UniProtKB/TrEMBL annotation:
Name of the featured protein: Glucosamine 6-phosphate N-acetyltransferase
Domain named N-acetyltransferase: residues: 13-157
Main location per the UniProt record: endoplasmic reticulum
Recorded GO MF terms: glucosamine 6-phosphate N-acetyltransferase activity
Family label: Belongs to the acetyltransferase family. GNA1 subfamily.
Taxonomy, superkingdom: Eukaryota
Subcellular location: Endoplasmic reticulum membrane
Record InterPro entries: Acyl_CoA_acyltransferase, GNAT_dom, GNPNAT1-like
Keywords: Acyltransferase, Endoplasmic reticulum, Membrane, Transferase
GO biological process entries: N-acetylglucosamine metabolic process; UDP-N-acetylglucosamine biosynthetic process
Membrane topology recorded in Swiss-Prot or TrEMBL: Peripheral membrane protein
Length: 157
């Protein structure tokens, strides 16, 4: 009898928090598909990983690992801002969402955004916000977001 080695989508794409070993699974190369992202040494990666760990639930990076290739194929992060307004309320900020070009259109981006938005809700945020290009507006609408106000920026480099 033939053994069934095929795995379901859920078994294949593992949604979890970033682990230190993800640098060797293509995490930095994936970020390069998003923006300027020079390579970092193992030491630099470890230092930043340890720094972020100190924030605990206030800074979470989600990744999706493809179990068949052991590659990170999607990621995104959420930062929890603690405010005085709204009775010392909290706001989640989603950043750096990207899916590997070979894995787009399979709901992985939505899975990442859902994971991050759920994290913000479960840690008590009254809202979760993000900036995006006009091209990605429809994607975030599919994730339950709506357009509000405008984005301003001042670059220092
Ligand atoms: C934007 C991005 C993250 C979307 O990831 P993805 O995994 O391909 O998207 P999903 O498969 O989860 O899409 C979810 C839904 O949004 C739709 N969608 C995705 N991208 C879209 C787009 N650019 N325009 C319109 N609809 C889009 C999908 O068709 C799908 O709709 P459905 O549920 O009706 O089938 C991915 O294209 C990407 O990494 N782009 C480059 C980096 C980037 O721009 N990141 C965003 C920074 S703000």
């Amino acid at each position: 009898m033939q053994s069934n080695t095929a795995c379901s989508e859920e078994e294949r794409y593992i949604v979890r928090k970033l682990e230190i070993t993800d640098k060797n699974k293509g995490f930095m190369e994936l970020l390069q598909q998003l923006t300027v992202c020079n390579s970092v040494s193992d030491n630099e990666f470890q230092k930043r990983f340890e720094e972020l760990k100190l924030y605990g639930d206030d800074h979470v990076i989600c990744v999706i690992e493809d179990a068949t290739s052991s590659k990170i194929v999607a990621t995104g992060s959420v930062f929890i801002e603690r405010k005085f307004i709204r009775s010392c309320g909290k706001v989640g900020h989603i950043e750096d969402v990207v899916v590997d070009s070979s894995a787009r259109g399979m709901q992985l981006g939505k899975k990442v955004v859902d994971f991050l938005a759920d994290h913000a809700r479960l840690t008590g945020c009254y809202k979760v916000i993000l900036d995006c290009s006009a091209d990605n507006k429809a994607f975030y609408e599919k994730c339950g977001f709506k357009e509000k106000e405008i984005q301003m920026v001042k670059y220092f480099i």
